[in-house]
Amino acid sequence: MDRSKWFILATGLIIGAIAAVLVKLGNPPNMGFCIACFERDIAGALGLHRAALVQYMRPEIIGIVLGAMLTSLFAGEFKARGGSATFVRFVMGIFMMIGALVFLGCPLRDVLRMAGGDYNAVVGFIGFVCGVATGVFFLKRGFNLGRSEYSHSNAGGFILPVIFLIFLFFLVKGVVFNPDAGGPLFFSAEGPGSKFAPLGISLVAGLVVGFLAQRTRLCLSGGIRDFILIRDNYLLLGFLGIFIGALILNIAFGFFKPGFADQPIAHTMSVWNFLGLYLVGLTATLLGGCPLRQLILSGEGDMDAAAVVFGMIVGAAFAHNFMFAASPQGVGIYGQIACIVGILVMFWLGFSFREE
After folding, report:
1. In this predicted model, what pLDDT tens digit does every residue of 328-351 receive, in sequence order?
2. Strand stretches in the chain, DSSP E
3. What is the domain extent for residue 290?
4. Which residues are CB-contacts of 333 (< 8 A; sequence separation ≥ 6)?
5. d(CA 4, CA 255)
6. Which residues have CB under 8 Å from 83's CB, separation 6+?
7. Are 157 and 17 contacting, i.e. CB atoms less than 8 angstroms apart?
8. pLDDT per residue over 266-285, tens digit each?
9. Which residues cross the membrane (predicted)?
10. pLDDT tens digit sequence for 52-75
11. Rounded to whole angstroms, how far apart are CA atoms 341 and 323?
12. Is-contact 10 244, C-beta < 8 A?
């Protein structure tokens, strides 16, 4: 392998190891990093939904965006850009989150769940691959959301990182605007939202992942897409590294528990594990990047990616307020309907946005 492939493999090993260490230090099991779950927790922390078990301002997400921003600034790669079907991307972000919460995890967490022995995640991974393959079908037919325009000023590209910096300030200072009702941040007293590693360690972990993911363009949907289209395995090596790094430490820490039943923050409804990540894979391919990649792009100044990130946060609010999100007991009828609707909407967009 050439040097770049060794670097992305090492990047994956580091991220997988960090994820396992974060679980050891307090993060929910098999959830050292989960972009969708953590953005869902942020939505709860902001009071956008009132699912009391999943409310926490996750420093890892803030760190990823800031790490990508700082890295791209030093590398001269930070450029404000946007205007490529921005509202469509926002809506697609909503559906990507719905698919992730039907499965109970993003593609990154899917790999971490497999590294913890969760066979349900294998079913989800197959669904994700099929979703990416469907997205590639649309790409081959000319799917295109349009070209992003570069701004004459980089100011717009700093908006999302600045918002997350404000969130970090609220988290560190524990600001309370309304002593009677709580807020602006809400915190879970029990459940996944109450489980977290120390704030400083979580923030540094996010910064490291943001730096590494920005330098390597780490993206699972992109890796599968590239392998299908041109048989390039560069990006897939990163996720192989994540799996190996997390697997080794999961075994060392005693976290590895193979099987379908009794997996942490997971359900055994195979059809919906498949379809949930199928929706995520399809949507991510049409958007040009998985949830992790959207965070990295937003840190680099991509305002369209920032719209996707906020779409996912709003999607998390919809998912819990309208009972779309799954639970360890399974996926309710509303979540099943929302997942199918999301897939149909992505098919409609896939056929509609085509270059002539």
Report:
1. 999 999 999 999 999 999 999 999
2. 81-82, 149-150
3. 3-352
4. none
5. 31
6. 146, 148, 149, 303, 304
7. no
8. 999 999 999 999 999 999 99
9. 56-75, 87-107, 119-138, 158-176, 196-213, 234-256, 271-292, 304-325, 331-351
10. 999 999 999 999 999 999 999 999
11. 15
12. no
